[in-house]
C-alpha cells in the first residue's frame, strides 16, 4: 500500500551517528518538529557493494539537500554496532567513513515491516510447531521516501537490490514539490528548477503545450 499523500508512520527507531552515539529517531517527528523535509533512504546491508556507493553519493550531495531545507537519513536492518564499525571503515576499503547523517538501525524491523519493503516471500505457518518461515533475506529493498514539513509523504520509490539510485533525481523532486508549495503550479514532465511550471487547468496545459 502506497504512503504517498499520507502521513509517514509514527514509529521510533534506534539510530547511529558518526560519533558512535545510539539514539531514538522518529521520522515523522523529525519532519514536523524541525519544519523540514526529510529524505529517508533504505539499503539492504552494511559491508556490501552497491550500498556504500549510495551512502557516499548522498553524503556528497548533503549540502544541496541542506540548501533545500531537507534532512537526509539512511536506514537498514543492521545493528547500531555494525553501523558504527562500517562508519569507521575507510572508503578505500569499502567503508563509509566520512558519512555524517544519521543511519537508522531497524533491527526489529518494525518500521521496515510497516512500510512493506522487506525481501521476504512465501510465508509458511507450521501449525504443529507454531513457527513461521519465509524465503528471502529479510532485508530491505532500496526504498526511498520524501516527507514534507507536515509529515506527509510526497514520494516513494523502491529499487531492486542491484540498482543504485540517482541522487540528483531526489533533488529535482524536492525542487518540484517546493515549487508546487510556493507557486501553486504543477510541474510538467522533465521539469527542473528554473523551468516553466503549469496551471492545473485546461488553459494551463494548452498554454504550456503550445510553447513546449
Instruction: Please give the share of residues in helix.
Output: 25-40%
Number of helices: 7
Instruction: Give unreliable regions as ranges.
Output: none
How many E-type strands? 9
Main sheet attributes: strand count, strand direction, barrel closure: 7 strands, mixed
- The dominant shape is globular
> Which sequence of SSEs, written as H and E, runs from N to C?
EEHEHHEHEHEEEEHH
- Relative strand content: 15-25%
Radius of gyration, in angstroms, nearest whole number: 19 Å
| Structural class designation | alpha+beta
Termini Cα gap: 35 Å
Mean pLDDT: 96
Strand order of the largest sheet: 2-1-5-4-3-8-9
Key attributes of the depicted protein:
9 strands
Short description:
The chain is of the alpha+beta class and 212 residues long. It contains seven helices and nine strands.
Task: Describe the fold and architecture.
By secondary structure, the chain is an alpha+beta fold. Helix content is 31%, strand content 24%. It is built from 7 helices and 9 strands; from the N terminus they run E-E-H-E-H-H-E-H-E-H-E-E-E-E-H-H. The protein has helices at residues 27-34, 50-60, 62-67, 80-87, 110-115, 167-183, 202-211; strands at 12-16, 22-26, 37-42, 70-76, 103-105, 121-126, 131-135, 142-147, 153-159. The strands form 2 sheets. A 7-stranded mixed sheet has the order 2-1-5-4-3-8-9. Strands 6-7 form a two-stranded antiparallel sheet. Helix 4 (80-87) links the parallel strand 4 (70-76) and strand 5 (103-105).
Amino acid at each position: 500500500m502506497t504512503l504517498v499523500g499520507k502521513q509517514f508512520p509514527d514509529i521510533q527507531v534506534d539510530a547511529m551517528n558518526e560519533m558512535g552515539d545510539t539514539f531514538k529517531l522518529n521520522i515523522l517527528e523529525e519532519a514536523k518538529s524541525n519544519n523540514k523535509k526529510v529524505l529517508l533512504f533504505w539499503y539492504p546491508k552494511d559491508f556490501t557493494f552497491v550500498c556504500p556507493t549510495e551512502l557516499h553519493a548522498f553524503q556528497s550531495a548533503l549540502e544541496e539537500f541542506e540548501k533545500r531545507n531537507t534532512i537526509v537519513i539512511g536506514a537498514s536492518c543492521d545493528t547500531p554496532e555494525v553501523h558504527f564499525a562500517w562508519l569507521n571503515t575507510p572508503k578505500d576499503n569499502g567503508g563509509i567513513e566520512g558519512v555524517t547523517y544519521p543511519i537508522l538501525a531497524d533491527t526489529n524491523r518494525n518500521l521496515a515491516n510497516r512500510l512493506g519493503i522487506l525481501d521476504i516471500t512465501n510465508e509458511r505457518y507450521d501449525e504443529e510447531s507454531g513457527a513461521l518461515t519465509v524465503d528471502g533475506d529479510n532485508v530491505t529493498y532500496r526504498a526511498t521516501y520524501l516527507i514534507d514539513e507536515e509529515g506527509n509523504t510526497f514520494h516513494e520509490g523502491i529499487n531492486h537490490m542491484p540498482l543504485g539510485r540517482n541522487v540528483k533525481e531526489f533533488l529535482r523532486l524536492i525542487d518540484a514539490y517546493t515549487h508546487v508549495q510556493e507557486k501553486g503550479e504543477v510541474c510538467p514532465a522533465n521539469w527542473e528548477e528554473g523551468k516553466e511550471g503549469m496551471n492545473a487547468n485546461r488553459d494551463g496545459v494548452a498554454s504550456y503545450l503550445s510553447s513546449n
